[in-house]
Amino acid sequence: MDQERTAWSRDDWEQEYAAIGATSETEAEAILVREAADLKPGRALDLGCGMGTNALWLAEQGWDVTAIDWAETAISAAKAAAVQRGLSASFQVADVTEWTPDSAFDLVISTYALPVGRESQDRALQAAKQALAPGGILLVVEWERSSASAAAFDPSELVSLDELTESLAGLTIEKAEVVAVDLQAHARREGREIDENGKPAHGHSHHGHDTGDWLAACVRARR
Predict the structure, then answer these.
(1) What percent of the chain has pLDDT over 90?
(2) Contact status, residue 81 vs residue 51, Cβ threshold 8 Å
């Protein structure tokens, strides 16, 4: 039986992104595309941007984008993708639990990027709230705790929808829902290959079984 995975360190993520390598994938997170469709482009912040797929999609839509991730390998790949696609975005290496915004943003996103542990998650979400301009939108998407078995994660590593909304106290919650995730599309955004059974190839994945129902908690809130 596969053992549940434990929280990954910065070095783990550096190795993960190095194994994935550069990717030209341009498919943004479907939830982001849906939620940003009615928003007027302004200043956007992507917390835990990975290799920049969502950040660069926002830039294509006319947003002025700042994106951070603690993995230097991911940020280097994101910068290279921006150059390749002729897009302008600011990519920075930073830890979301220690980073402090020095300006305000009309849209702040965090997609599958919160650190493990309630205390660390609250610090990251506090930075996200601080970064919001008046009237700004915060979009948080995370694996929901009910996906723990399918993902071979310890349930304590994941969040519940109620915990997310509690952490965003002080903001107006416009939407809070649990949604099914298209695992193939998610894998493509991560730069992972799809095997002959239509499942993400395990290779260097931080996911475990890749079976069962994968559900995400999605919260859209306004300052």
Answers:
(1) 55
(2) yes
pLDDT in tens, 175-216: 999 998 877 666 666 655 555 444 545 444 444 444 456 899
pTM of the model: 0.83
Instruction: Residue 204: name the closest of 58, 73, 46 by CA.
Output: 73
Dump the DSSP string for 90-122: EEEE--TTT---SS-EEEEEEES-PPSSHHHHH
Question: 208, 68, 216, 205: which is closest to 142 by C-alpha?
Answer: 216
**Residue from 137, 68, 82, 127 nearest 100 by CA:** 127
Q: Please, are residues 216 and 31 in contact by the beta-carbon 8 Å criterion?
A: yes
Structure tokens at 112: 């599958």
The residues pairing with 51 across neighbouring beta strands, listed in sequence order, are none
Phi, psi of 214 (to 5 degrees): -100, 120
| Strand ranges of the sheet holding 64-69, from the earlier edge strand across to the other edge | 90-93, 64-69, 43-47, 105-111, 132-143, 215-222, 172-180
Coil, helix or strand at residue 59: helix
| 122-125 long-range Cβ contacts below 8 angstroms, 24+ apart | 122/167, 123/96, 123/97, 123/98, 124/47, 124/48, 124/96, 124/97, 125/167, 125/168
